[in-house]
Amino acid sequence: MSYFLRRLAFYVFTAWAALTINFFIPRLIPGDPVSALVNGMRGQIDPAQIQSLTVLFGLDKKQSMWEQYTSYLAQLARGDLGISFGNFPLPVSEVLTQALPWTLLLIGVTTVLSFLLGTLLGVFAGWWRGSWIDGLLPATTFLSSIPYFWLGLIAVALFTGVGSFLPASGGYEPGLVPGWSGEFIDSALRHSLLPAATIIVASVGGWLLAMRNMMVTVTAEDYITVAHAKGLSERRVMMNYAARNALLPSVSGFGMALGLVVGGTFLVEYVFSYPGIGLQMLDAIAKHDYPLIQGIFLVVTLAVLAANFLADLAYMALDPRTRKEG
Amino acid sequence: MAITGVGITTPNVAPADPAQTATRRRHGLHRLLVNGKVTSGLVMLGVLTLIAVFGQALAPFDPSKRSSDILQSPSLKHWFGTTHIGQDIFSQVLVGTRSVMFVGFTAGLVATIIGVVIGVTSGYLSGSAAEGLSAISNVFIVIPALPLIIIITNVVPNSGDWTIALVIGFTSWAWGARLLRAQTLSLRRRDFVEAARATGESTWRIIGFEILPNLTAIIASSFIGTVMFAVATEIALAFVGISGISEWNWGEILFWAQGQQALPQGAWWWFVPVGLCIALLGTALSLVNFGIDEFVNPRLRASGQSTVKASDGSRVRMKVGFTPVLADPSRSKEIGI
Amino acid sequence: MTVTTEVVLAAEGLTKHFPVRKRGRELLSRTNHVVHAVDDVDLVLRRGWVTALVGESGSGKSTVARLLAQLYPRTSGDIRLHGESAAVSTARGGRRFREYSRKVQMIFQDPFASLNPVHTVRYHLTRALRIHGRAGKGKQELHSALAELLGRVQLTPAESYLDKYPHELSGGQRQRVAIARALAADPEALLADEPVSMLDVSIRLGVLNLLRNLKERLNLAILYITHDIASARYFADDTLVMYAGRMVEGGDSETVTQHPAHPYTRLLVDSAPDPDRITGSAQGLVQEEGVGEPPSLITPPDGCRFHPRCPFVMDKCRTALPPRFDVGDTETHWAACWLFEEAKA
Q: Residue ranges of the ABC transmembrane type-1 domain (chain B) (predicted)?
């Protein structure tokens, strides 16, 4: 229980830290470009929107830093993230709501799949030292050294083109209306295959290696020998004894690795013009769309924290030592 | 990250031999270098460093110079082909190596130094200061690095190689810090630290001379991991168009390739060689990392043969923790098997 | 035998309580739990004498050694070096600690763990000499100081040991290096925390003899901590017995080991194989009665801490902590047990 509470407290603290970092960043921009943009748009946006932008970026020089900070927090609590300059006149929250599901789906599915695949292969690689699986190691390491986005570019070059099955870009066929229709879902799936495959191929190596190293260390422990001596089947010892214990560091590292995956996914979205948050952010940077940039950073960080928390819960379920009271 | 459970090697105890000379001192380092992985990795890194230093002189053409050889595929004149305005891609790669290596290693250095200071201090000292440092490191680990770096580099004016390197260094130290903190915590309880205290060593000497030397392998591994991350990040930044990085950073080459629609035009030579170079650097770093891992944890060394032939011709599969016992058919009747 | 030799180190009422970290629901409660590692320990170390401190794991004997070495600050009680009280803050380090450590040095149980695996023997000894200002000036003086140190612990020729790493030495050699390191400070008191427990049995005698030799030549006061009461008889002049953080018996070694008074000491002696007593205990201590485990030190039992396991337990033992009572005729043998409470004549 105390483990759970400590982790919860930590995430609350980190979320607060993220909010505060988010608060300070735009105030570091020299030359105050935001004021200029806002003034340029003054005729077109209503006073409420101007007010929300003022709070977000500290445009009102008469307020003290602390007052700005408290108004900022209050505004966030209402869910108001300002207006997007690039997607004018959409509010930032709406832009995010459109883009977020695509990214969540892509990252969610690919991360879980590459974790499962990599860890499973790692179990076999560690258990059967010297078998052909060890040959996979240099290959996957090599693949992991290649940036995600480059793999994406190659994939586009190799597998797409006129008349091929896999589309080169986008989230779905342009012209289709997003909805739950079979045609749309089919198109969406096809469009996500290549990006997903890119991410999986690039990240599987890391999990494989980590799991293999842990398996090697665990296999040499005495309790494995005892399990063999008891007469248990090899598969049982490998899975229920060795893998179960070797899994723990990978699970606890899962949350941390997620940060890296998020970064890589952004780049993949860019390459494939996949309509997720990553693409939005890179677009926003090009267009100096400060409210959107801020909003994306916040949402992404909070999402990563939430995922970390879930990973910690999974760890709690797997490692009985964390449940010990006192 | 291929950081494994690290322990100090516990080799077998050899009886003292008066004939041994003082060259034994380098025994450990020597063993590390003999490891094939480390050597090949270091050789590759060495080659790349030379290119980084002498790239400009080695390049056959001025990378920015236009020419009339537009979008040519690789030939003897242009080893990597040319761009849409006739620039030689091979020269671009050579010249850009400097930026890539510089930013990568500088960021790695900055991050490792910060990580060592914060990690070891928060591990050795106890109290609220240490807990605070630990909390800060955890915060930095969890916040996704790439979005943060993108934002900061965009916000800071006049970014050059140094700025990018510093920004990356200041956002990626936390992983190493946490690792070092955990190791320091476990080392702190070891008898030799208490013995050093009992001898009268001061706290700073204990941290610097007793604890740190035992952490060199982890620090090296963490440094390399951070360099890998820094290289990937700076190339990604250049690729998406964050300005300010030196001319012809490999990511910038890819940026132009993407912008000029190299793919649909079939100009594969514009980005394939670059990617392979990136992979080469990454692989070199990984090899050195593996070598260090195996040095520290001898169990990870390649097991060599996994199936051996016994003298009577039967094949036995070797498994960790097992001593295979073969029944001797000629004696089986005696024993009653 | 009553010999008045100079007292080097004395402890009086030495107590150490370690705070226990609160977990979970306990965070809300006000009571702070502590581990009563050491309670009210008195001991005296004299020049040229070996005092043994005997007890099982968890009895607090190692903690006593670390308190005497000022590695932890004591909770209460007094530690006197040559009659002068050492302040509690000595344990925090600094000049006062260094001056203290010049006189009082410690040897640890695990010879491999007490030497830093990345440093050579030369480094360990040179540091020890330098800190205490005995490294001399220049390479020649340093070298002879090192050679002399190694000579004292019988590791000769010095050249063949100086550049070795700990993993290249055998267990006995490492422990000798540890002893040499302690001697570098030219101490007056040596606290040996189970110095031979982790050595092969055949080597133990050699190291113990070395310690005895050093004691005589350098007139050291040695505190010998062990769980093996038989070796205390062989090696030590005085023996003190500890249980669950408290002292339960004391006296000269021969008497304590041959005629143990306290039921716990009797238990220890009976469980140590001793060729002199093959035929079994004449005092009729029933073997089955001695089973059990040491108590929790966070909530130690009331009264005498041994009462849950004691075959001779009386009602008084459960509630009242027994003070020290003299045993027999000698004035030096005492036991903290209600069995020995007699009306003074």
A: 101-289
Establish if A183 belongs to a structural domain: yes
Enumerate the residues of chain C whose CB falls inside 8 A of the CB of residue A7. none
Write the pLDDT tens digit of every residue in B144-179.
Answer: 888 888 888 777 766 678 888 888 899 889 888 988
Per residue in B276-309, pLDDT tens?
888 888 888 888 888 887 776 666 655 444 566 6
Q: Is residue A206 part of a domain?
A: yes
Q: Which of C25, C33, C35 to mutate to test the interface with A (most CBs of A within 10 A)?
A: C25
pLDDT at A11 over 50: yes
**What is the number of alpha carbons within 13 Å of residue C241 lying toward its C-beta?**
31
pLDDT tens digits, C190-240: 999 999 999 998 899 999 999 999 999 999 999 999 988 888 988 999 999
Tell me the backbone φ, ψ of residue C240, rounded to 5 degrees. Answer: -120, 140
**Residues of A with CB below 8 A from B229's CB?**
260
Residue with tokens 């469980």: C271
Whether A21 and B297 lie within 8 Å, measured CB to CB:
no
In a domain, A309, yes or no: yes
Q: How far apart are CA A111 and CA B288, in angstroms?
A: 27
CA count, 13 A, side-chain hemisphere, A230 = 12
Residues of A in contact with C24 (CB under 8 A): 1-2, 325-326
pLDDT in tens, B240-249: 877 666 677 8
- Partners of residue A325 in chain C, C-beta under 8 Å: 23-24
Is the CB of residue A251 less than 8 Å from the CB of residue A314?
yes
- Residue B250 tokens read as 């490999």
Distance CA C323, CA C325 (A): 6
The B-side interface with C (CB below 8 A) comprises 8-11, 13-18, 20, 22, 24-25, 190-192, 194-203, 210, 213-214
By CB atoms closer than 10 A (0-12, 13-18, 19+), residue B185 is middle
Asked if the Cβ–Cβ distance from C127 to B194 is below 8 Å, we say no
Domains assigned to chain B = 36-304 (1.10.3720.10), 308-337 (no CATH)
> Burial, A118: exposed, middle or buried (Cβ in 10 Å; 0-12, 13-18, 19+)?
buried
Contact yes or no for C160 and B20 at CB 8 A: yes
Domain CATH number, residue A165: 1.10.3720.10
Q: For CA atoms C332, C337, C342, C343, give the dihedral sign.
A: positive
Q: ∠ at Cα C240 (C237, C241), nearest 5°?
A: 140
* Section A69-93 average pLDDT: 77
Chosen for mutation from C104, C116, C149, C193 (greatest number of chain B CBs closer than 10 Å) is C116
- What are the counts of helices (DSSP H) followed by strands (DSSP E) for chain C? 11, 12
Which of A12, A149, A298 best tests the B interface by mutation, with the highest count of B CBs <10 A? Answer: A149
| Structural domain boundaries enclosing A175 | 2-30+81-322
Task: Say how many domains are in chain A.
Answer: 1
Closest chain C residue to the Cα of B201, Cα to Cα: C131
Q: How far apart are CA A54 and CA A42, in angstroms?
A: 12
Give yes or no for a contact between B246 and B203, defined as CB atoms under 8 angstroms apart.
no
B chain contacts of residue A28, beta-carbon cutoff 8 Å: 155-156
Instruction: Give A9 to chain C, closest Cα distance, Å.
Output: 13
* Alpha carbon separation from B151 to A285, C26, C42, C120 (Å, rounded): 8, 44, 66, 50
> Could you report the per-residue pLDDT of B122-144, keeping only the tens digit for each?
888 877 888 888 888 888 888 88
Structure confidence at residue C345 (pLDDT): 40
**Cα gap A115→A310, rounded to integer Å:** 15
Better pLDDT: A34 or A75: A75
Phi and psi at residue C80, to the nearest 5°:
-120, 125
Residue A199 included in any domain: yes
ipTM of the complex: 0.82
